[in-house]
Amino acid sequence: MRRLFFDILITGHHTEYIGHLIHYFRHHPEAGVNIFVVHPHFKDQFPRLAADANEIHNVQLVEITEDEFQKSTAGSLLRQSFSCLRLVQRYAERYQAEGVFLLSFNVFQISLMLIRPSFKIRGILFLQFYRMSKGSWKERLKYLRKYIVTKLYSNNRQIERIFILNDPNSADYLNRKFRKGLFQVLNDPIPVLQPLDGFNIHDLYNIEPERKILLHLGALSDRKGTLEFIRSALFVNKESQNELAFLVAGSPGGAEMAERIENQIRHINESTGIKAVCDHGFMPDEKMKSLLDQCYAIVIPYKNPESSSGILGHAAASNKPVITTGKGLLKELVEQYSLGLLIDEVKPELIAGKIETLLHRGDWKGESTKFVVQRTPEHFASTIVA
C-alpha cells in the first residue's frame, strides 16, 4: 500500500507525531510505501529526524514549496480548508497514494463536507465539539455550527476513520450521533525522552536549591492560563513564598504576550518572596525532559476543557504531579490516574490554593506508570495504520 501522511505545520505535536510514525516504519519494513508531506523547512529544522527518514527504505520525506505553504495557510479558515485539500490531492496524485492520513484533520472539515477525493482518508481531530460549553448563546451557536459541520463531513464515505485523542466518551457520542464506527479513540503518545547529562535546573536559572520549582511549559498564551499562573504567586501565603520558584518556559504567542509575561515576572519578583524566571524560546526535547525531571510540579491551567494536554503525558512520564483544569477531559484523566490536583476555574487565587495544598501533601503517589504504558509511540503509530 502507498500511504501519504500530510502535516505541513512544524510546531509541538505536529513534528512529534511525524517522528513517531517514521520510527515505527523503521521497525516495520513490511508496511508498504510511506510518503510524508511536510513543512518547507522541515529538514533544516529537524536534521536528525530527516536523516533517520532517509535511512528507512519505505519512508520518503517530501517538503512542500514555500509558495505552496503560503497559499495553503493564508486567508480565512474556509479558504485554507479548500487550499489545503487541493494541495493534498496534488501530492496524492503525484505519488499515487491509495490512502491519505491527515495528521491534523481540523482544517479539512469544511472542504470534506463537499469534496470526495479519489483516495481514502484517515485523520486526527483536535477540539471536537462534544465537550464544548453551551452556557451563552455564542457558545451554543458555535456548538451548533460544529455539530452541523461534523454531520456533513461524516456523510463523506471517502473518510474511513477519524481519531479522537484520549477520549472514549467523545468517540462513543460521535459514533451514536453520526456514522457508526467512523470515530475511534487514539491515545496521545508519550515519547521516551532522555535528559541532558549534567543538567541542573537550579544552577541554570540561579534558583536556590531549597526552593521547589513549579514549571509552566510549552506554548505560552492566554488559553494556556500562562498569566493566571504567574499572578497566582500574589496569592500564595507569605510564609510559603520563600519555598517556591516559578519557571515559565516555552514560546510566547507573539510579541505582546512575551512583553506581558516579562512584566508579570518582574512584578512577582518585586512584590513577593517567590523567585520567578522566564525562559523564552524553542525547547529541545532533552532540555524539556531535564526540566520535567527536576521540577517539583507542573502547572497546566488550560482554559479549554475539550482536549487533553501533551504536557500531561510528559509530566506523568517524569512522575511529577500536575495542577490543572478541573473540567472536561483533563479532569477525567487526572482523576482516573491520580495525576494531580484540579482547579475549579482558571483563577490565580485558586491556582495558589492548590499550590499550598501540594506543598503540604508531601510525596505524590499516583498511577502515572499505568498512564504512560497505555500511551507508547508504538501503540500510537500501530493504531493509525492498522
Describe the structure.
The protein has a seven-stranded parallel β-sheet with strand order 3-2-1-4-5-6-7, with helices on both faces. A six-stranded parallel β-sheet has the order 10-9-8-11-12-13, sandwiched between helices. It has helices at 13-26, 42-45, 47-55, 66-72, 77-94, 111-114, 137-154, 168-177, 201-204, 226-231, 238-241, 255-271, 285-294, 310-317, 328-337, 348-361, 368-373, 377-385; strands at 2-6, 33-38, 59-63, 99-102, 120-125, 159-165, 183-186, 212-217, 244-250, 275-280, 297-300, 322-325, 340-343. The chain is of the alpha/beta class and 386 residues long. The longest helix has 18 residues, at 77-94.
Concise account of the structure shown:
By secondary structure, this protein is of the alpha/beta class.
Q: Which features does this protein show?
A:
single chain; 386 residues; alpha/beta; Rossmann fold; 2 domains; seven-stranded parallel β-sheet; six-stranded parallel β-sheet; 18 helices; 45% helix; globular
**Count of DSSP strands:** 13
Strand content: 15-25%
First-last Cα distance: 12 Å
Cα Rg: 22 Å
User: Helical percent range?
Assistant: 40-55%
Looking at the overall shape, the CATH architecture of the largest domain is 3-Layer(aba) Sandwich
- Any low-confidence stretches, pLDDT <50, length ≥5? none
The top level CATH class name of the largest domain: Alpha Beta
Sequence of strands across the biggest β-sheet: 3-2-1-4-5-6-7
Major beta sheet summary = 7 strands, parallel
What spatial form do the alpha-carbon principal axes imply? globular
Helix and strand composition category: alpha/beta
Mean pLDDT: 93
